[in-house]
Amino acid sequence: MRRWGILAAVTLLCGCFRIVPAGDEPRPAGPGQPPATGVSSAAFAGVKRGPSVGALNLSAADAGTALASFLDSCPRILGRTDASGLTHGEDWRAACDAANRWPYDKARDFFVTHFETAQVGDGAAFATGYFEPQIRGSRTRRAGYEAPVYKVPPELTRAWPADMPGSERTGRPPLGRYDADGDFVPYYERAEIEDGALANRGLEIAWAADPVELFFLQIQGSGRLITPEGEVIRIGYAGQNGREYVGIGRVMRDRGLLGDGPGRYPGSMQGIMAYIRENPEEGRALMRLNKSWVFFRELTGDGPLGSLGVPVRRESSVAVDPKFVPYGAPVWLDLDRPEATGLWIAQDTGGAIKGANRFDTFWGAGDDAREIAGGMSARGQALILLPKGTVARLGEQ
């Protein structure tokens, strides 16, 4: 396994996610997911003891990659509050200490020794996929490279509109900006930004060759720009304009444009892109229905980073709803897509990754990653691996 973002393009475009720094806005992510249950956390969904870790069909290679990602996660999970209510930071101490010295060729024994499995709710899993796109780009504007990649504008801020009653001011204030009259208003939407609302302000960190590819990169939340000179510029999520995210895959399905039948396009990222390219005017209008715009920053060092703040790894990292799966927890997926079956580590989240047993697997970068993630839509069963003793303390429900 995993992490992102391109769920079955419909998935993805129906609400998909991606790779965001810890504490930032979750990126959008995934179409076709099951409806939300209304349950607010794993503690309310019900937790039941699962089979022993030793009973799982866990290969040595799968365990080795999972151990490496788990070890990456340890510095983060030991000191953070688990939103799922399943664990405390110190619950992970023994496993993290052992992971530091455990040989990778014995990784399966590590998980058998330190973990037990738990089923959250009915355990019925739905998994999509995301990846790190690679698109053509340039540090400077030049012929053929006209789509700006913006950094976060300094005026983008959070505040309460003056006309909003105090009784309605709950949670975090919305994102927006102050206009010339000093009134707090919504920030520019996608169409306004594409029409030049941020132009000529020095906010461009690069220029993309293809606005359609840039649109999909924004959905993923992270990616690589490959310049004509062969330079690789890695960019990651830095912020979002606070406007409504619309999954265009769902819109296309509602309009009868996706699916089986004459004149319809495949319900995948590739199918959606084909429609947009073959119908440029309608495609541009379709993309503009998604008012959300993602701002980026240039990344250096290892990456891309998931919302846990550690690098996500191909076929090892998975995006989860942290209200149902503790960050850093190993997740066993037994799915109808064999390539996605195995042990993953919860290191990311996404705007459409909501509820118990909803997952988004990460497939890295490159053409094969794009192909696998773009068509990933899998169902099966999920088990969460928790430090031994956790299920008894919670009390099986």
What does the model show?
This protein has 397 residues and is of the alpha+beta class. It folds into 2 domains: 9-130 and 308-394, Barwin-like endoglucanases (Beta Barrel); 133-246 and 271-298, Barwin-like endoglucanases (Ribosomal Protein L25, Chain P). The chain contains 12 helices and 17 strands. The strands form 3 sheets. A 6-stranded mixed barrel has the order 3-16-13-15-14-17. It has a 6-stranded mixed β-sheet with strand order 5-9-4-10-11-12, covered by helices on one side. A 3-stranded antiparallel β-sheet has the order 6-7-8, with no helix packed on it. Strand 14 (330-335) and strand 15 form a beta hairpin. Helix 9 (269-278) crosses helix 10 (280-288).
Elements, N to C (H/E): HHEHHHEEEEEEEHEHEEHHHEEEEEHEH
Q: Indicate how many domains the architecture comprises.
A: 2
Number of helices: 12
**The CATH class of the largest domain:** Mainly Beta
Strand order of the largest sheet: 3-16-13-15-14-17
Strand count: 17
Assembly state (oligomeric): single chain
- Would you give the CATH topology of the largest domain? Barwin-like endoglucanases
Largest sheet: 6 strands, mixed, barrel
Helical proportion, percent range: 10-25%
On the 0-100 scale, what is the average pLDDT? Answer: 88
The CATH architecture of the largest domain can be given as Beta Barrel
Uncertain segments: 1-36
Which class of secondary structure composition applies to the elements? alpha+beta
The CATH superfamily of the largest domain bears the name: RlpA-like domain
Termini gap: 30 Å
Mass-distribution shape: globular
Taking Cα atoms only, what radius of gyration do you get, to the nearest Å? 21 Å
- Proportion of strand residues: 15-25%
